[in-house]
Amino acid sequence: MTIEWPAHGLKLQAAIETGKAVIGVIGMGYVGLPLAVAFGEAQCGVLGFDLDPEKVDALKRGESYIKHIAGDRIAPLAANGKLDATADLDRLGEPDVLLICVPTPLTRHLEPDLKYVEETTAAIAKTLRRGQLVILESTTYPGTTREVMQPILEAGGLVAGRDFFLAYSPEREDPGNPTFSTTKIPKVVGADDTVSADLALALYRHVVPQTIAVSSAATAEAVKITENVFRAVNIALVNELKLIFTAMDIDVWEVIDAAKSKPFGFMPFYPGPGLGGHCIPIDPFYLTWKAREFNQHTRFIELAGQINADMPQHVVRVMADTLDARSGRGLRDARILVLGVAYKKNVDDIRESPSLRLMEMIEARGATADFHDPHVAQINGTREHPTLNYRHGVAWDPAAIADYDAVLIATDHDAIDYAALVEHARLVIDTRNACGKAGVVSEKIVRA
């Protein structure tokens, strides 16, 4: 069946295909900023929206505030007018396309908190005009685009698929990944009408090597949830294997390294002190919540969540037991240095980092917890750990390491000299096999 395109849809299509469409990116964080830079470098005009005036001012100066996004990529875009930024949401009517990259956290009861999506959608609705394309990139449960966003956008009388266009394309950012950056990752796109889908596909072809069309926005939302559930469940599996193999005096990292030599049927995942980042610890619970609406139970996913959530307790228990065996006092009055507060190696992203929970648990046991992170000078903006906000890291000083009762390696940054660390430390609790990967062997090292 031939689909008759509305005139403003044809106009937008022409603007997108010629690179003349103005792209609005809402939320200039770890997802929005690299996306905005990618479109700017593709010679599209980009207007970034963020309520943080410091981010807006930095972008106007051509500066980056995210370590793995180089400032020399932003400066020329700001200078030639390809990238501008604003905190004024009244300007949401200016771009031809609006990409929503806002957080989707959980409530304390592990239920979806869509307030940022809803507030952003309501702000868009105030200035929504015919011919605009709105795309949600934030991870969420299947049905959000259609059930939550569309009614808000249509409340003013405009109709999705006819007057304006609506799609979902999940972000697939992996901060700090040198191999797969924004412009090297295929993009999944889903919409509930053909015109919206075709427009969104045409848009992303400017910046990604491949676009994958799926049959609906809900299907695209399910794709993203599936990707993150897959990781969460497999990480839980290796975390549980770590506990089992440790009890058997078997090195789980040696097991995984040998198992991954099999060229089929095995994909390596690695244990750690807990899950971090905005996606993996949170997104599976979006699906468990939505599944209850259909009277479906997600026992496997919830069990994985429980195993991963329990890992910090295991780490602290190993540390306390080891200190007790060596000094007879456990964690009481001990001084602990936490190495790495970023949730993964070589980035400055502390969102949902297990290191923050570890620091709180250590101090709850009567110890003090300092931290050193070569990428994070100060802990800022963590709503879940307010007692840690504005805490500064300590300088890297091997001589001072001996003053700590134990060093906890929570993030395996490449910039750390692990040989020097082990040489000067009294005790090293290694949750990432960082010392093993660096070839450092010592009786001071305890894996947890």
CATH fold name of the largest domain: Rossmann fold
The number of distinct helices, counting runs of at least 4 residues, comes to: 15
Ends apart, CA distance between termini: 60 Å
Low-confidence stretches: none
Number of strands: 13
CATH level 1 name of the largest domain: Alpha Beta
Q: Rounded to an integer, what's the Rg over CA atoms?
A: 24 Å
Give a structural overview.
This protein is an alpha/beta fold and 448 residues long. It is 40% helix and 12% strand. It has 15 helices and 13 strands. Strand 5, helix 6 (144-154) and strand 6 form a beta-alpha-beta unit. The chain is elongated. The model has no long low-confidence stretch (mean pLDDT 94).
Write the layout of secondary structure elements.
Elements: H1 7-17, E1 22-26, H2 32-41, E2 45-49, H3 53-60, H4 71-79, E3 83-86, E4 97-100, H5 115-127, E5 133-136, H6 144-154, E6 165-168, E7 187-190, H7 194-204, E8 211-214, H8 217-247, H9 252-259, H10 283-293, H11 299-327, E9 335-339, H12 354-364, E10 368-372, H13 398-401, E11 406-409, H14 418-424, E12 428-430, H15 434-437, E13 445-447
Parallel strand pairs: 1-2, 1-4, 2-3, 4-5, 5-6, 7-8, 9-10, 9-11, 11-12, 12-13
Summarize the structure.
This protein has 15 helices and 13 strands. By secondary structure, it is α/β, with parallel strands linked by helices.
